[in-house]
Amino acid sequence: MTDAIAALEARLGYVFQDRALLERALTHSSHAGENRGAPSNERLEFLGDRVLGLCMAEWLCELYPAEREGDLGKRIAVLVARDTLAPIAERLGVPAALRIAASHRHAPLRQSATVLGDALEALLAALFLEAGLGVARDLVRREWAEAVQGQARPPRSPKTRLQEWTLKRGLGLPDYVTTSIGGEGENTMFHARVAAAGREAEGTGPNKRAAEQAAAEAWLGVVKA
User: Fold this and answer.
1) How many other CB atoms sit within 10 Å of the CB of residue 67?
2) Which of 17, 25, 36, 91 has the largest CB neighbor count within 10 A?
3) In which residues is Mg(2+) bound (predicted)?
4) Was 34 annotated as part of a binding site?
């Protein structure tokens, strides 16, 4: 057992009996590709995404019994976003425990919000498979507590806020354009531009939606809307 994995398990509050399952949860696809026969964490990430969604939906329904489905959806979208998951993964010590290809060890994969979010979801799946939903639920409620408590009201995305701002002033809908796509695989970055009320702003993100949200946030920051 490496020191990094021991530290991770200490922060998780759980020691895995199935070491191969834990190892798989921490194996990035680059390492699996470099070591033929070594499974990556992609399938576990797929399952963990659903485990997180279930745990979070159950929790939000308990906390906000009178809230509409649409507002609950806005809350959960932020709470399961990679920008929320990455700091939690860092706090748990996931970056140091990740198994990444030797050729990528000097690349920013260990700091990638997408990679860290995927690994955290894979760990949730591993907990679910070995220890059951209760253990996974306990981890979610402990590690996401600050993020959940910070949502006094359902969050409104930058795109929603910008659209409300322009429509309120009779200026029509903002216009979004994807200006370029760079990088490959986990390092793919989208660049978007938004035009509204005679002003433009740009943003970047790992997908089109994230880039547009970043552009809207930048636009709102300039106008202080």
Assistant:
1) 15
2) 25
3) 45, 118, 121
4) no
